[in-house]
Amino acid sequence: xxxxxxxxxxxxxxxxxxxxxxxxxxxxxxxxxxxxxxxxxxxxxxxxxxxxxxxxxxxxxxxxxxxxxxxxxxxxxxxxxxxxxxxxxxxxxxxxxxxxxxxxxxxxxxxxxxxxxxxxxxxxxxxxxxxxxxxxxxxxxxxxxxxxxxxxxxxxxxxxxxxxxxxxxxxxxxxxxxxxxxxxxxxxxxxxxxxxxxxxxxxxxxxxxxxxxxxxxxxxxxxxxxxxxxxxxxxxxxxxxxxxxxxxxxxxxxxxxxxxxxxxxxxxxxxxxxxxxxxxxxxxxxxxxxxxxxxxxxxxxxxxxxxxxxxxxxx
Length: 315
Fold this sequence. Notes:
Layout: H1 10-17, H2 21-35, E1 40-50, H3 79-91, E2 96-101, H4 108-122, E3 127-131, H5 137-146, E4 150-152, H6 171-183, E5 187-189, E6 192-194, H7 200-211, E7 219-224, H8 241-254, E8 259-262, H9 271-279, E9 284-287, E10 290-291, E11 294-295, H10 299-309, E12 312-314
């Protein structure tokens, strides 16, 4: 079995990124098979429980109040509607239900409802995940007590490129929230977005940050930028699809026991590209027609793809 490491150097990671493609895939697949069923994929569903009006200035985000995307601001969803959506997701094969709110950080009047959502979704027998922005110590403890299984807080990109994407919170703010979640005993879900105009060195630096946390994130979502008209990154040059696969493969090598999730951007990927991502070590996806505010392949299409590839879902 591959030993877990938390001391990866940037040059080491760049050397992996620059391997001949077949050699990189061979390494990633070997490591994947040491730790996972190579033909199994974990399925999550993501629901936006509060959409739009966020005060942050993330350059990729349709939900930022500073970006003119035409997205209507909505209130926090009622608890019963969230439960109905979770039941529907479970019926389609999702084992984890992820709830996201467009906040810099949650306010108390909303937070009490969020805690109830966690409790109600857990009663359905599903794992729960939340992404609510930055958290303080008290909020982390209360989410843990409510039984939240995972907390998602992405690093987005490298420390070096971060200032090109967002200015309203620091990289250290993100790391601090992840450490609070870890100290509270919850599972960490953290990854990033590629294709935002960053360099290969930036992608290596992002993976270095994730792999050298005190513990590897249990889930590592790797998102391809979904370009939304009205955001500062809407006209950025497309990333070479094989570069995306390389990022997946290196994530698998660096974090052998993590679930590497093929996340946003799948609607722009053909089946063959997604198959390469699974071969590179991706073993988790988001199921359902929407990811917060952007499109996602429908569940029936995903099931057909799984059948073609001989993949089964984890329950």
